[in-house]
Write a structure and sequence with these properties.
With about 140 residues, the protein is mainly α. The chain is about 75% helix and about 0% strand. Pfam families: TPR_8.
Length: about 140
């Protein structure tokens, strides 16, 4: 129907497509050895979130943290992972465990051993809770 407003679903779909396209472009740039060019693309993709918070771009956060670490920006990589951890720390899933492992690794490298152990302990709790939930 022509002239009918698209509504909020369309806006969320566009935001989601922008996140996916940004992640794809950043990965292409990285594969071409242009990691520094990929960083602003990922930062922009992180800004595109659905208004209700649905579809949080965890893959973008993981990719961004990896690229930041690769380019020697460890502190910022930890900040990105800490934000991801705050979003997934209550939910079991491979993404949550991956965030915990990577954050703990960076914390350990930076000398924050106690925090690294706390994050790993949380990951183990997630795994234990997740295995209980399986039939």
């Amino acid at each position: 129907m022509r002239g009918t407003p698209a509504g909020p679903v369309l806006a969320a779909d566009i935001r989601s497509a922008m996140v996916v396209a940004g992640l794809g472009l950043a990965r292409t740039l990285r594969a071409a050895g242009r990691t520094r060019d990929a960083l602003p693309v990922l930062r922009l993709a992180l800004q595109e979130r659905a208004p209700d918070g649905e579809g949080d771009p965890l893959a973008v956060q993981l990719e961004l943290s990896d690229m930041l670490e690769e380019t020697g920006q460890t502190r910022e990589a930890m900040e990105v992972l800490e934000q991801a951890f705050q979003q997934v720390h209550r939910f079991y899933g491979p993404e949550a465990v991956q965030v915990c492992r990577r954050l703990a690794s960076l914390l350990q490298e930076s000398g924050n051993h106690i925090q690294a152990c706390e994050v790993l302990e949380h990951a183990l709790d997630l795994l234990q809770d997740g295995s209980r939930a399986l039939p």
